Every structure is written in structure tokens, then in C-alpha cells.
Amino acid sequence: LAQCTDTFDVVVVGSGAGAMTSAIFAADQGLSTLVIEKSDKYGGTSALSGGGIWIPNNPHFRAKGGHDGREEALRYLQAATEGRVEPERLDAYLDNAPRMIEELEACSRVRYAVADKYPDYYPHLPGALAGGRTLDPELFDTSVLEEELEHLRPASPSTLLMGRIAWTARHAHKAMARERGWRLMILWLMARYKFDLKWRRRSKRDRRSALGHALVASLRRSLMDRQVPLWRNTDFRELIQEEGRVVGVVVERDGQTLNIRAKQGVILASGGFEQNPALRERYLPTPSRREWSATPPGNNTGAALEAGQAAGAATALLERAWWAPTISVPGEDKARGVFAERAFPGAIVVNGEGRRFVNEAAPYLEFVDAMYRDNAATEGKSIPAWVIFDGHFRFHYAMGPLMPAQIKPDSRLPAQWRDRVYWKADSLADLASQIGVDPGGLEASAERINDFARTGQDLDFERGGNVFDRYYGDLNVTPNPCLAPLAKPPFYAMRLDAGDIGTKGGLSTNARAQVVREDATPIEGLYAIGNCSASVMGNAYPGAGSTLGPAMTFGYIAARHIAEQR
Ligand code: FAD
Measured between alpha carbons, how far is 341 from 362 in angstroms, rounded to an integer? Predict the structure, then answer.
């Protein structure tokens, strides 16, 4: 038998939202639980994320009088996943996701509110809702983390108002859509930050956190309440197996190799492989680069995938990622996802021929799928793609790291961003030649979009033609909140890479989150959740929160299954 230095009932590998959720439920079933994290910061990509969770038929929407139903949600998921995901896994998700969030909020410090205007990503599919399935974390007071706050992965400045102030997705949407009262709301958030004098003396960081940072902070505090240990700087290397059953893990900690026994089960929750160039090369479509990922450098390198494969696990969806177009900014350690800005009226995206190839407002996964498709069709002219906008857009709206010029004009941007982060010219033809795009093609695309802006109808890609597109449109712009002319100099271009916010393929699991072999038999004692498992969403991204919702739900399922097997 392997010599073990420590023994627990359950070892959870990774410290993202799914990992910590599973640890809370495991602890509450009376299982002694250890969470291990290889980095010196806990929280993973989850801490940098929007923290949104996609939970059909959830209690928050119902409490606000919203209507959703399991059957409707099932129809939607079946259509979105195109019959490629085992029905029992879809059922497990739909049955357990609402229970998970209800029980988690009842027993822990995690708090959500419904983002009731956030539509499902495929409004044309049967069972889609125009809002109500995505939950958005409430603000969380991080002072309760005490010293553990220092070890929490900091939020990306891009998710904070003015790079500093915490705001929820609901706040951000109100400001982006310029809904009534948005200016007052921003003033109030700024004043609350500024006059938090006690905390201001201590730190420039907001006392409150939002989005995924709030989620991870509230989960971490809930683990502290239960005295569940979280070992940072502890790198999972291998599984320990006895007679076909997983009974522990081998880790590197402080330069030492330790065997840790997990009497009841190991839950792998160590993220995907997007930070591993060799695995990207092996599995993902080309071109694809680690540097285009918006996830923390070096964290998710596929350790669980490789260990699971060595233990005989089947895998699926390895060629897929949670794609999102990204922009890289010099001096920043990871790329920034461009989620919303593509839908703002007046910006178009073109390939090297200067031609539009996709509805710019499409969901981020579909947008990058279209980049790959067009790149294949044009023999390499769509990766990178280019987002083009004019002086009017630049004044009013943000794009990647550029705040609207009415807040931060070009003269206040870092000088080294010019011709690296953004390009600028007085004419479209000049701009096109600066970035190596066909000038005639770009001018023709601009003329065509200007016609569409007048009529409100994008005859090529139907941009702004559905409730999802319009979520990020500007409601003050008519007749189509996602279309405006591209006409007022100067003109701007920014480079869009085929980035990701994590990979979505990994170890195959069953409806109980157990890792399975090719013949579908479970490897006893081994569970996988989050991006190290093949997603229950198949190829699709049904709504905001489709990665964290399942990670947390299958974490809940795994913990309960382990407790039942005891
Ligand atoms: P992670 O949260 O990355 O956690 C994995 C952890 O495991 C990491 O801390 C890593 O260091 C650790 N680890 C890795 N290898 C080892 C090892 N060998 N030993 C020990 N520990 C290890 N998704 C949503 O659902 N909703 C959103 O609103 C949303 N917004 C996003 C916004 C942005 C800007 C980004 C970048 C992503 C967003 N996502 C969102 C995607 C989501 O954040 C990820 O899909 C999700 O966090 C993955 O969770 P995970 O638990 O699998 O991995």
C-alpha cells in the first residue's frame, strides 16, 4: 500500500468555484475534505470570471415571478447540444442545478441575484428564454476573509469600474446599455468606494468584490467557516490506485513529494489544458496560442486530463474550447476577452479581405467558430480578424482596453499602444493598409453597413435581429440598437485573436460526475468536474454561466454521491 502522509475522506484538486462548491457539500456530509491548489493564489479562472451561472428553472427567477420549466429547459438543451450529450447527464444537470444553488445559498455565504434581462445565447431554439436563467453574484464584503484575502487571485482590472470599483454584471449592463439612471448609479458606486474611509486607508482595492471574485471569496469564507483546509502551492501529479480504485493523490508541496490518501474519493477540478502549448497543439484547431487565452498564465495545464488518461479514462470534446475573441495588451499577463463590445453599434469585424464574415454580436463561442471557418475558407485571412470603428464610436463606447474617448481620449492612452493595441487613420483606406487589410474590401464593407444602419436590417448576417444581440446594443440607437454608420474620421482598428476562456473537453464523466472508461464503466473513487471534464454542454454555450453552472452543479453531485457510497 502507498505510504501516505495525510489522510482525508475526500481530496479536491483545484480551487475554482466548482472545486470549492464540492468541498462545502462534502464537508457538510461529514466527510473530512482537503482542497489542494498548485498556484500560490486560490480561485483559478473562476476568480477572474463573470461568476455568472446558468441555472434553468432557478429559485431567484421564480421568486421574481418569472416563468421557466424543466421541460422547456430540456427542449432548449437538447436542441443546443444536438443530441450529442447523454440524456442522463442533461437530466442530472437540470434536476440538480436548481437544488445546488438553493442549498448552497442556504448553507453558505454565496449569494446570487437573477440577471433577468440576460437572454439565452440561442434565442431561435425551442425552449429559449429572453432572460432569467443566468444568475449574477451579489457584491461580497471581502474583509471577512481576513489574511486569506491576500491569497485570493486578484480580479482583473478590466472587470472593475475605472479598474478599481466592484460592480455586478447587472450594474455593468445598465451602464453599457445606457439605461435610465446609469450615470447616477455610477456616481453612487464611486462615492461609496471613495467614502469607505476605513478601507481606503488600508488599500486601493475595493472592500467589495463582484462577479467571479465575489463568488470565489464567498466560497472561500464558507470553507473557512467549516475549517476545511486549502493547501496552496500544492501541485497534483498523479493518482494513486489500488485494485482499480482511486485512493489518493501524489502531490509536490514545498519541494517534497507527498502521497495523500483520499478514503472515499478524489474530485478532479483542476481546470482545462489551455495553458499547455503541447496539449493545445495536439488537440485544438490551428492556429491557436496559449497567449490568446484570457485565463491565468501557467495555471491550467491539463494535469487532470493526463492523470485520468493514465488511469484508463475516456475523453471527449478535446478539440473544443470555450472560445472568445481576445485582445492582447502589452504588459498584461493575459489576453482580454471581447464579450460585449462587438455588439455596440458602429463597430464591424472584417477579415484580411476587408470583408465581414460573421454577425459581430454573436455569442463569443460562435464568433470564434466563425473565425476558424472563415480562416479555412480564405486560407488564413481571418485569424487575426480586425474590429474597425470610427470617431463617433470611439467617443461613446469602450472597445477592449480603450475606455470611451469622452472619458479617456487618445491623448491619455499609453503611447506604446499606438500601432500595437490600436491603429488609427483619417481614412478607411489608409487604416486598411496600415493593418494589411484590403482597402477596397474594407471601404465596400463600410458602405454596405452604412446602408444597413439606415434601414436597421443587416441583410448579410442579421446583426441585431434577436434579443441576445440587442442585450449589448445601445437602446438609444434606432432603428437597430446594434447598427450605426461607420463614417466619421478618424478610423480605428484593433486586432482580435481566436482566444478562449478555458478548454471544454476533458475526461468523460457520467451523470454522477464519476470518470468513466471507454466502456462507460466508472473508475471507482474518481470524479471530475469543471473544465477538466468534457462539458455537459457538448459543443454549445447555451447561456451566460454555462461553464460555472455545471462545474458547481456536478461538484454538488459528486460530493453527494461520495457521501452516499460511504
Ligand atoms: P479554474 O477556475 O481555472 O480552477 C482550476 C484551478 O486548478 C486553478 O486554480 C489551477 O491553478 C488549479 N490547478 C491546475 N492544475 C493543478 C494541479 N496540478 N494541482 C493543483 N491545482 C491545479 N464562466 C461562466 O460560467 N460564467 C461567467 O460569467 C464567466 N465569465 C468569464 C469571464 C472571463 C474574463 C473568463 C476568463 C472566463 C469566464 N468564464 C465564465 C469561464 C470560467 O471562468 C471557467 O470556465 C471556469 O472558471 C473553469 O472552472 P474550473 O474550476 O474548471 O477551473
Answer: 11
Query: Which pLDDT band, with edges at 50, 70 and 90, does 280 fall under?
Result: very high
Does the residue 473 lie in any domain? yes
Tell me the ipTM for this assembly: 0.99
Q: How many structural domains comprise the chain?
A: 1
Question: Which atom of ligand 1 lies closest to the CA of 337?
Answer: 34
**Quick check: CB of 295 below 6 Å from ligand 1?**
yes
Q: What pLDDT, in 10s, does the model give residues 214-251?
A: 999 999 999 999 999 999 999 999 999 999 999 999 99
Distance CA 325, CA 499 (A): 5
Instruction: Specify if 339 maps to a domain.
Output: yes
pLDDT, tens only, 70-102 = 999 999 999 999 999 999 999 999 999 999 999
Nearest atom in ligand 1 to the alpha carbon of residue 504 is 45
Q: Is the pLDDT of residue 1 over 70?
A: no
Pocket test for ligand 1, best of 45, 238, 292 (most atoms within 8 A of CB): 45
The whole-number average pLDDT for the span 459-466 is 98
Classify residue 37: in a domain, yes or no: no
CATH, residue 375 = 3.90.700.10
| CA distance readout (Å), 103 to 12, 21, 23, 24, 97 | 20, 11, 14, 11, 10
User: Is residue 477 a part of any domain in this protein?
Assistant: yes
Atom of ligand 1 minimally distant from the CA of 235: 19
Take residue 341 and report the three cell numbers written for it: 463590445
pLDDT at 2: 61
Separation of CA 547 and ligand 1 centre (Å)? 9
CB distance 298 to 274 below 8 Å: no
357 within ligand 1 shell (Cβ under 6 A): no
Print the domain residue range for 385.
324-499
